[in-house]
């Protein structure tokens, strides 16, 4: 095995770990510029068949441009894109075996639900009976059989979303492109639909590529996530790896909440690295090797749920610091505590509210101990 | 805040609209005047309408006008829709500034200049003037109006709908006819109607570009008005006003009803979900 | 090595990326473009050319006429015979420059009057209950659809000496002698304000209607009385609409022919009327072309300003 997976792998499906696996979609040194603005910067990426892949990033990071280049709405200035071995350069969108589900759904307002779903099939001049059967199948898949004769404006937001999905699936594309597919739905419906999407993808065995700015959405649906910033890919990994082993401060900060402490490498012995942070009495010991040399500035990153709070000094006194409770946020399921450890460092700790008591033992201005295990955080060098 | 109509707003609305409508209303009333003196009320009569129908010159002019308006509105709608697509979709290309200039300029260009310049063009290329030269002239300025109307429709149009069609395998030209045109159709129809009435209405440009045998209704009305106001012209005008008014109001009622139905459908769909 | 590969790919990729936009797109651009070039832009050059010719008793009534068969020599001879005589004539005869000045003056005054009538109307519409607004809008647009000529004509019956206005005023006892309104500049003002009112009200209404009511509430909340909020918030924010509307009235009004011809009198000097008379009555095509060229030059500045404003508004929407 190439490397030890962190946490449980969601499915026993990991073609990216197999060096012989043939990529299904490949971006090879792709650059796209709009005038002076470089939207995608010399980017390479491999996506495998049957993978649910997410492009995640803030607005303007180039994720939508990547998808639009794959769909054929933009042509890269440099580099090549391959889909199932075919070089897509010069292939117009209407001849590409990729279909897209649009953020706005882009339903044809003058056609019925049926008409929308049948549209792509009609372009292929399939026999009428076949089209009808396929449309019925698709409507059944998204549970909209009863709405076949309706026009888009006679549907609710969730129903429209499903029509758009059925329409883009109808042609059995080699890859389904989803552009912020759930952005217009309210939170509850969005969460339900996320799971429906993963089930659907597993059932159909198709390759899905989703573009989203919502990290929870990407984590829920995707096998692998590419975190993008300023036209570049910062990290490609499974959701668990992205969360637990971010490769940079950008990724660590972008995904979830994190404590970041600037420190210097004090000693490196075998498996562990000792860090010295200004204002900390003790060294931070991390069970991780680093390429940074002794004396280099690095960042120690740790998720708030891995930081424990206690009044008594922890028994294993290695990774601990004393702090003063500065702020408390009660979110229902968890509470977030902000503790001031040094003049510059405020550490966050989330604590699950496992009991129903309204009075919490820890309160403002309390002096507490913050402690964590040696393998709970990571050292970041960039 | 002050959402209720204040006395100032009501007054300005009443005065404003009276100013806009009173002259036309008076014109309509006096077209039913028995008396030959236009400003003296001599009792109700429809005799001027009969008189009008017996005036062969007027009828001929009306027929010419309708044919000109129909042809020029149709050509202008095709060209104007293309121009709107260029404005809305073609992005930056060399010569775009000139192009949009040529679209906007005719909207404000004095008619005497448009008329004179087109006439001189027809003379320069030795084109005999008449029916078709009026159509070309009307097409030229009406297409700019169509372009503006259609462009505003295109501007409020979600482009991803077209992209979706392309994505589903529909080539660009077919996408235009299957998707874009049906969606912008209300704008195109409005553009056609506008082009039609502009042509119906035009005196100056037609006067410059016309030739023997192609006298339009506005030209006929103008020459009669110069001789003095007659109740017969009142009758013609009333019919023209009625024609346009009915057309415009009918269209807007149909549109409004569709919109209300649409809103109702949307509310119902959300309520069911 | 990867670098050279990437460079090679870049070379290859540029050409097809550009070519793809072409054919269909260029065809789409070409058709309306060609039409407008030939029937809108080229005629202006012909007008300019003829304005440099001399009048002649011939068909067409100007000299020299351009004949392609004479080739290059013919063209040169043609060019050498052009003269600016017509323009000199325009400056010598005070009829013309008086017409220009008077046109601009009448157009500017009527634009101001239209604004005075139109602003309250547009404001009233924008502040009317939402349910009424489509109907009110319809009522403003409707006259715009009905014939311009008819609407001007309707005023003749009202304004003339024995017309309805005078009858009303006499009956009310306001006057005891009929007022002479028709065939004066006053009638021209009335005609222009009346005919062009929708052009001003529509863009103005559009901006006023978009004006966020909460801005006025915020002003009021911060202690600003309504009349001052009107001046410091409503008026500045409606300025784009005011400007667009004023251009839409002013520019065509300068070259107006029908209104001064039907409602104005012999002392009403407007350049559209002068041009018409020069062309149809005197049959002096070169001089009327020169008149048109100067009129165009006068209007170029407002037209360019208007287009810039339109374009900016369009980009702001996008």
From TrEMBL, chain A:
Cite the Pfam families for this sequence. Answer: ABC_tran (PF00005), TOBE_2 (PF08402)
EC top class, as a word = translocase
Q: Which GO terms describe its cellular component?
A: ATP-binding cassette (ABC) transporter complex
Q: Which residues form the ABC transporter domain?
A: 25-255
Q: Catalysed reaction per UniProt?
A: ATP + H2O + polyamine-[polyamine-binding protein]Side 1 = ADP + phosphate + polyamineSide 2 + [polyamine-binding protein]Side 1
Q: What are the alphabetically sorted keywords of the record?
A: ATP-binding, Cell inner membrane, Cell membrane, Membrane, Nucleotide-binding, Translocase, Transport
The signal sequence is none
User: What's the EC number here?
Assistant: 7.6.2.11
Gene3D superfamilies to which the protein is assigned, alphabetical: 2.40.50.100, P-loop containing nucleotide triphosphate hydrolases
Q: Which residues form a coiled coil?
A: none
Molecular-function annotations in GO: ABC-type putrescine transporter activity; ATP binding; ATP hydrolysis activity
Q: Which domain of life is it from?
A: Bacteria
PANTHER family associated with the record: PUTRESCINE TRANSPORT ATP-BINDING PROTEIN POTG (PTHR42781:SF5), SPERMIDINE/PUTRESCINE IMPORT ATP-BINDING PROTEIN POTA (PTHR42781)
Recorded hits in NCBIfam families, A to Z, give: potA
Q: How does it assemble?
A: The complex is composed of two ATP-binding proteins (PotA), two transmembrane proteins (PotB and PotC) and a solute-binding protein (PotD).
What protein family does this chain belong to? Belongs to the ABC transporter superfamily. Spermidine/putrescine importer (TC 3.A.1.11.1) family.
Its biological function?
Answer: Part of the ABC transporter complex PotABCD involved in spermidine/putrescine import. Responsible for energy coupling to the transport system.
What protein does this entry describe? Spermidine/putrescine import ATP-binding protein PotA
Automatic annotation (TrEMBL), chain B:
Specify whether Secreted is a keyword of the entry.
no
* Transmembrane annotation, as ranges: 7-32, 61-87, 99-125, 131-150, 176-198, 233-254
Question: What InterPro entries does UniProt report for this protein, alphabetically?
Answer: Bact_Polyamine_Transport (IPR051789), MetI-like (IPR000515), MetI-like_sf (IPR035906)
Protein's membrane topology = Multi-pass membrane protein
Q: Which GO terms describe its cellular component?
A: plasma membrane
| Compartments, record wording | Cell membrane
GO BP annotations listed: transmembrane transport
**Which UniProt keyword terms apply here?**
Cell membrane, Membrane, Transmembrane, Transmembrane helix, Transport
What Pfam families does the entry give? Answer: BPD_transp_1
This protein is called ABC transporter permease
TrEMBL record, chain C:
Q: Name one GO cellular component term.
A: plasma membrane
Give membrane topology per the record.
Multi-pass membrane protein
Alphabetical keyword list: Cell membrane, Membrane, Transmembrane, Transmembrane helix, Transport
So which residues are the signal peptide here? none
Under the heading PROSITE patterns, the entry gives: ABC_TM1
TM ranges: 26-48, 100-123, 135-156, 186-208, 229-254, 285-306
* Domain ABC transmembrane type-1: residue ranges: 100-306
Q: Which Pfam families match?
A: BPD_transp_1
Work out whether the entry's keyword set contains Aminoacyl-tRNA synthetase. no
> According to its UniProt record, where is this protein located?
Cell membrane
InterPro entries assigned to the protein according to its UniProt record, in alphabetical order: MetI-like (IPR000515), MetI-like_sf (IPR035906)
- Superkingdom of this entry's organism? Bacteria
Query: Tell me, which GO biological process terms does this entry list?
Result: transmembrane transport
The record's similarity note reads:
Belongs to the binding-protein-dependent transport system permease family. CysTW subfamily.
Entries under PANTHER family matching the protein: INNER MEMBRANE ABC TRANSPORTER PERMEASE PROTEIN YDCU-RELATED-RELATED (PTHR42929), PUTRESCINE TRANSPORT SYSTEM PERMEASE PROTEIN POTH (PTHR42929:SF3)
Task: Specify the protein name.
Answer: ABC transporter permease subunit
User: What is the originating organism of this protein?
Assistant: Stappia albiluteola
């Amino acid at each position: 095995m190439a490397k030890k997976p962190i946490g449980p792998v969601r499915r026993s499906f990991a073609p990216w770990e197999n060096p012989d696996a043939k990529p299904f979609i490949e971006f090879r040194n792709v650059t796209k510029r709009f005038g002076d603005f470089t939207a995608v910067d010399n980017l390479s990426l491999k996506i495998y068949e049957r993978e649910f892949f997410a492009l995640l990033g803030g607005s303007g990071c180039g994720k939508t441009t990547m998808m639009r280049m794959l769909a054929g709405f933009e042509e890269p200035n440099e580099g090549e894109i391959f889909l199932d071995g075919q070089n897509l350069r010069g292939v117009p969108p209407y001849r590409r075996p990729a279909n897209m589900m649009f953020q706005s759904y882009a339903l044809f307002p003058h056609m019925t639900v049926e008409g929308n779903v049948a549209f792509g099939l009609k372009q292929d001049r399939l026999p009428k009976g076949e089209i009808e059967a396929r449309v019925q199948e698709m409507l059944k898949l998204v549970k909209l059989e009863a709405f076949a004769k309706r026009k888009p404006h006679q549907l609710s937001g969730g129903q429209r979303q499903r029509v758009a999905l059925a329409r883009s699936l109808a042609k059995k594309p080699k890859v389904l492109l989803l552009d912020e597919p759930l952005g217009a739905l309210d939170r509850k419906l969005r969460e339900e639909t996320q799971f429906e999407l993963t089930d659907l993808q597993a059932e159909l065995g198709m390759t899905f590529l989703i573009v989203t700015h919502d990290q929870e959405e990407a984590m829920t649906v995707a096998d692998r996530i590419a975190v993008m910033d300023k036209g570049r890919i910062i990290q490609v990994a499974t959701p668990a790896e992205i969360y637990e082993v971010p490769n940079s401060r950008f990724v660590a900060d972008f995904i979830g909440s994190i404590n970041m402490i600037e420190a210097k490498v004090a000693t490196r012995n075998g498996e562990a690295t000792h860090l010295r942070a200004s204002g900390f009495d003790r060294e931070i010991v991390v069970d991780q090797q680093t390429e940074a040399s002794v004396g280099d500035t690095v960042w120690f990153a740790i998720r708030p749920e891995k930081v424990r709070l206690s009044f008594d000094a922890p028994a294993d006194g290695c990774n601990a610091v004393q702090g003063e409770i500065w702020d408390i946020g009660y979110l229902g399921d968890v509470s977030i505590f902000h503790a001031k450890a040094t003049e510059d460092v405020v550490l966050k700790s989330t604590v699950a509210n496992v009991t129903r008591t309204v009075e919490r033992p820890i309160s403002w201005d309390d002096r507490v101990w913050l402690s964590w295990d040696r393998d709970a955080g990571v050292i970041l060098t960039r | 805040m002050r959402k209720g109509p204040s006395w100032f707003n009501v007054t300005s609305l009443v005065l404003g609209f009276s100013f806009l409508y009173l002259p036309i209303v008076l014109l309509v009333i006096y077209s039913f005047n028995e008396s030959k003196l236009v400003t003296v009320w001599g009792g109700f009569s429809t005799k001027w309408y009969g008189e009008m129908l017996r005036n062969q010159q007027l009828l001929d002019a009306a027929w010419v006008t309708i044919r000109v308006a129909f042809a020029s509105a149709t050509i202008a709608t095709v060209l104007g829709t293309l121009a709107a697509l260029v404005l809305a979709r073609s992005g930056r290309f060399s010569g775009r500034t000139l192009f949009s200039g040529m679209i906007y300029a005719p909207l404000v260009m004095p008619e005497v200049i448009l008329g004179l310049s087109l006439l001189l063009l027809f003379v320069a290329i030795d084109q005999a003037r008449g029916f078709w030269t009026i159509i070309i002239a009307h097409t030229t300025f009406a297409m700019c109006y169509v372009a503006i109307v259609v462009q505003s429709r295109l501007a409020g149009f979600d482009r991803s709908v077209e992209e979706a069609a392309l994505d589903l395998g529909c080539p660009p030209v077919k996408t235009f006819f299957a998707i874009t045109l049906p969606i912008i159709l209300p704008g195109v129809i409005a553009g056609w109607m506008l082009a039609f009435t502009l042509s119906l209405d035009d005196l100056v440009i037609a006067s410059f570009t016309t030739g023997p045998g192609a006298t339009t209704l506005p030209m006929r009305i103008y020459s009669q008005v110069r001789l003095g106001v007659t109740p017969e012209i009142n009758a013609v005008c009333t019919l023209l006003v009625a024609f346009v008014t009915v057309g415009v109001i009918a269209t807007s009622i149909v549109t409004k009803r569709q919109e209300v139905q649409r809103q109702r459908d949307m509310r119902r769909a959300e309520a069911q979900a | 090595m990867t670098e050279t590969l990437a460079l090679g790919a870049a070379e290859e990729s540029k050409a097809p990326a550009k070519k793809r936009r072409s054919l269909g797109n260029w065809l789409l651009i070409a058709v309306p473009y060609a039409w407008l070039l030939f029937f809108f832009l080229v005629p202006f050059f012909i007008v300019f050319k003829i304005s440099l010719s001399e009048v002649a008793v011939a068909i067409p009534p100007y000299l020299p006429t351009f004949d392609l068969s004479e080739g290059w020599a013919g063209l040169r001879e043609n060019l050498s015979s052009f003269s600016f005589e017509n323009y000199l004539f325009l400056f010598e005869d005070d009829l013309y420059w008086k017409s220009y000045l008077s046109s601009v003056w009448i157009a500017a005054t009527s634009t101001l009057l239209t604004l005075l009538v139109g602003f309250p109307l547009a404001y009233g519409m924008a502040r009317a209950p939402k349910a009424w607004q489509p109907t009110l809008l319809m009522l403003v647009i409707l006259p715009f659809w009905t014939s311009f000529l008819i609407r001007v004509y309707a005023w003749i019956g009202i304004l003339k000496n024995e017309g309805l206005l005078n009858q009303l005023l006499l009956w009310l006892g306001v006057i005891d002698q009929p007022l002479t309104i028709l065939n004066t500049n006053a009638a021209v003002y009335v005609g222009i304000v009346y005919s062009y009112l929708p052009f001003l009200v529509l863009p103005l209404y559009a901006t006023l209607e978009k004006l966020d009511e909460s801005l006025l509430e915020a002003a009021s909340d911060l202690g600003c009385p309504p009349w001052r909020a009107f001046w410091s918030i409503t008026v500045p924010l409606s300025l784009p609409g005011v400007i667009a509307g004023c251009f839409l009235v002013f520019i065509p009004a300068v070259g107006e022919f029908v209104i001064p011809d039907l409602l104005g009198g012999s002392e009403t000097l407007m350049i559209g009327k002068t041009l018409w008379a020069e062309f149809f009555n005197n049959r002096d095509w070169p001089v009327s072309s020169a008149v048109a060229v100067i009129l165009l030059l006068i209007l170029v500045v407002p037209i360019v300003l208007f287009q810039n404003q339109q374009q900016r508004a369009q980009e702001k929407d996008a």
